Amino acid sequence: MKFLFREWYGPEESEIEDYIRTATIALDANVLLAPYRVGSTQRTELMDALRAVSERIWVPYQAALEYQRNRLSVAEEQQLFYDSIEKIGAEKFDTAIQKSLDELSAMRSRSLEVLRDAEIKSVIASGFDESIEQIRELAKRRKEAMKEAFSALRRDHAVDFNSVRSADPIRAEFDSIFVDGRVGFPPDPETLNDRIEQAEKRIAADIPPGFKDKKKNDATGDCLIWFELLEYAKQTKRPILYVTNDVKDSFERVYGQRVGPRVELRAEMLKTGGQPYHQTTVDGFLHLAKKYLRVSISDDTIDQYKSRRVGGGFAETDSGALLGSGTGDTEKRLEETAISDGYDTGQFRVADLLEQELAELQAERRKARAIRDRATVSQKLGESRKLGIEAVKEGKYGKAVDILAATLSEELAQFDRVDSGPMKTQRALVDAHMSFGHHGEAEALAEDILREHVNRYGPDDKRTMKVVSWIAEIRSNVT
């Protein structure tokens, strides 16, 4: 049966190896932009992997064009991020220390006001002055250490924006790899207009790839790349392994998990390009290069590219959480500690305590942000779930399954399977599968839910028994 329905069969292990060893390795623009968001080690290892397949690399013209258009803005994002980080040492640290010194000076004045004995006043004043000067020296040394640490961080992880603008070292490496026809040629105006027209029709009809970008001003980019891939496969008569970090609508999902390109894309490539087709992410490509081509790539590098893909890279980092100054409560506690410990010994602790307080404050802000983000995500996913349920009511079962499976995948990345939101989505997904006639998928998902309840609550718990009754109802509907 496989020879009739090749598009429904994902590649086996041996076929995966054939892809990385013999297929055309086509690259999306986001793959070319990925090195700007990681450290030097990760950049080097990606370049090593690309050189290992350089004879078979191909970059569609549209992907190369998008890379050229966006590389400066991506480099600028990283520059701004590190600029923000350095402000911790350059501005906020100074401000916090100065507040402590001002309070010590005020304490000195108050102490001297109530003393009449000149000798005692001299001793007290000298003690305060010596402590204040020592704190200044300690703060200065720590500021320099922080500045050096931030500079080292930037050297290790960021490509200088001015270098990117004048003599981009990453682009220079790409230029040395993408030679001898490794980049597609621009289509003539008539062909381009025809492709854009086709892309717009596909996007309007929710045909992958790229239809989930329809809200963008120009959503045709993914389709234009796809048309180039189809043509290139037809010309070269070689399978395509497409590397892309865009996972919105071109990957097939089963129970919320990505399992390869969508069936529609496989089928279209077989019909139009005459070749098998597979796709993976940057971290997936690095894993395959390490496993089958024996390229030296660390697990940390693979994890770094994966985290940038999932988390959106440095540009998505909330540097604001790192830049806040101390709160009034923090400053009050520091003052109270200094007073209670005495002018002589207590002031030696202020810089240490300040550093600790700032670290704790940052941690609290990150925690609060995480709670806020979870609530926002939960609300967003709840809206997505409603769209899937509406699709079921409208009889659009395939669309419902796609929406609910994608929603569930995002929920399970942040919540437990038995939490309220994921449970609602799973029940809705089971209903969608049942309505679509996917009885086996519906039962399998329901059994996964049951296993989780048994493991979490035990077989005799009321919540578990409700799931048992629900599964029985599903099976009765099947029969």
How would the blueprint of this fold be written?
Layout: H1 13-22, E1 24-27, H2 29-33, H3 40-52, E2 57-58, H4 61-113, H5 118-157, H6 161-167, H7 169-177, H8 189-204, H9 221-236, E3 240-243, E4 251-254, E5 257-261, H10 263-273, E6 277-280, H11 282-292, H12 299-311, H13 320-323, H14 328-341, H15 350-393, H16 397-412, H17 420-436, H18 439-457, H19 462-478
Parallel strand pairs: 1-2, 1-3, 3-6
Antiparallel strand pairs: 4-5
Helix pairs in contact: 1-11, 3-7, 4-5, 4-9, 4-14, 9-10, 11-12, 14-15, 15-16, 15-17, 16-17, 17-18, 18-19
Describe this structure in words.
The chain has a four-stranded parallel β-sheet. The protein folds into two domains: 1-325, no CATH class; 381-478, Tetratricopeptide repeat domain (Serine Threonine Protein Phosphatase 5, Tetratricopeptide repeat, Alpha Horseshoe). It contains 19 helices and six strands. Residues 252-257 and 313-354 have low confidence and may be disordered. The radius of gyration is 30 Å and the shape is extended. The protein is mainly alpha-helical and 479 residues long. It has helices at 13-22, 29-33, 40-52, 61-113, 118-157, 161-167, 169-177, 189-204, 221-236, 263-273, 282-292, 299-311, 320-323, 328-341, 350-393, 397-412, 420-436, 439-457, 462-478; strands at 24-27, 57-58, 240-243, 251-254, 257-261, 277-280. 70% of the residues lie in helices and 5% in strands.
Q: Any key phrases for this structure?
A:
Serine Threonine Protein Phosphatase 5, Tetratricopeptide repeat, extended, 19 helices, 479 residues, 4-stranded parallel beta sheet, mainly alpha, 6 strands
